[in-house]
Design goal:
CATH class: Alpha Beta
Largest sheet: 6 strands, mixed
Structural class: alpha/beta
Bound molecules: zinc ion
Strand content: 25-35%
Distance between the termini: 31 Å
Shape: globular
Number of helices: 6
Helix content: 10-25%
Strand order of the largest sheet: 1-2-3-4-5-6
Order of helices and strands: EEEHEHHEHEEEEEEEHEEH
CATH architecture: 4-Layer Sandwich
Length: 208
C-alpha cells in the first residue's frame, strides 16, 4: 500500500508529493516546488529516507526546492531530457512571478524518457511522456495502485496546462490528455496544483 502526503508549497501552491510504501521508510519526492525547510521537516516527522527527487517538468514552481534537498540528502534529481532547455529560463521566470531570485537552476542527475521506471524501494512508477505544457512534461503512473501524477498537464475540474509559452504545444497537450484519459476510469489523478480527481470525473470535461 502506497502512502502519499500532499504538501502545497510556494506562492503558486504547487503540490509537492511525498510517496512511500506503508511500513517502509524509502521515499521519493515529486515536485518540491519551494519551502525546502518545511518539506525536510515533514520528511523527518514521518521518519522517511529520501531516495530521489522527480520533477514532472522544469517550471520553477515545481523545482525551486530541489537544490536544497539535494544538498541535504545527497540524492539524484530526475527530469525528462526535453525540459533541460527550460532550465535556462528558470531564474528569470521565478523572479518575474515571485520577485525573488532563486539563484541558478538545479542540475538533473538522471534524464528520463518515455516508459522509464522509477521508484527504488518504492512501488514502481512508469514515466509517461506527456508533452504540451512543456516539451518534457511527464506523468508518473503506478498501475498497481491506480494512481497517476499529472503535473501541470491536467487538473481537477477540466483544467489543462497553459500553452501560451513559446515552447508549449496545444496540439501535443491535447494528445497527452487523451493518453491520460484512456487509463482505467478509477485511476486517481494527482495534479501539480489543486485537488485530486479521477479519470472518470475528468472524462466529463474532455472529448475523447
Ligand atoms: Zn508548469
Ligand atoms: Zn505549476
Amino acid at each position: 500500500m502506497l502512502n502519499i502526503i500532499t504538501l502545497p508549497v510556494g506562492q503558486l501552491k504547487a503540490n509537492c508529493y511525498l510517496v512511500y510504501e506503508e511500513n517502509a521508510s524509502d521515499c521519493i519526492i515529486i515536485d518540491p516546488g519551494d519551502e525546502a525547510d518545511f518539506i525536510m521537516q515533514k520528511i523527518n516527522d514521518y521518519g522517511l529516507t529520501l531516495v530521489g527527487i522527480v520533477a514532472t517538468h522544469a517550471h520553477f514552481d515545481h523545482i525551486k526546492g530541489v537544490i536544497e534537498l539535494k544538498w541535504a540528502f545527497n540524492i539524484p534529481f530526475y527530469l525528462h531530457a526535453k525540459d533541460q532547455a527550460l532550465l535556462a529560463h528558470y531564474r528569470r521566470s521565478a523572479m518575474y512571478f515571485t520577485n525573488y531570485d532563486p539563484g541558478p537552476p538545479p542540475i538533473p542527475d538522471v534524464y528520463l524518457k518515455d516508459k522509464d521506471t522509477i521508484g527504488q524501494g518504492v512501488s514502481e512508477f512508469k514515466v509517461i511522456q506527456t508533452p504540451g505544457h512543456t516539451p518534457g512534461s511527464i506523468c508518473l503512473y503506478n498501475k498497481k495502485e491506480g494512481i497517476i501524477f499529472t503535473g501541470d498537464t491536467l487538473f481537477a475540474g477540466g483544467g489543462v496546462g497553459r500553452t501560451d509559452h513559446s515552447y508549449s504545444n496545444p496540439l501535443n497537450l491535447g494528445k497527452s490528455i487523451q493518453k491520460i484519459l484512456t487509463l482505467p476510469d478509477n485511476t486517481i489523478i494527482l495534479s501539480g496544483h489543486g485537488e485530486a480527481t479521477t479519470v472518470l470525473n475528468e472524462k466529463e470535461y474532455h472529448l475523447i
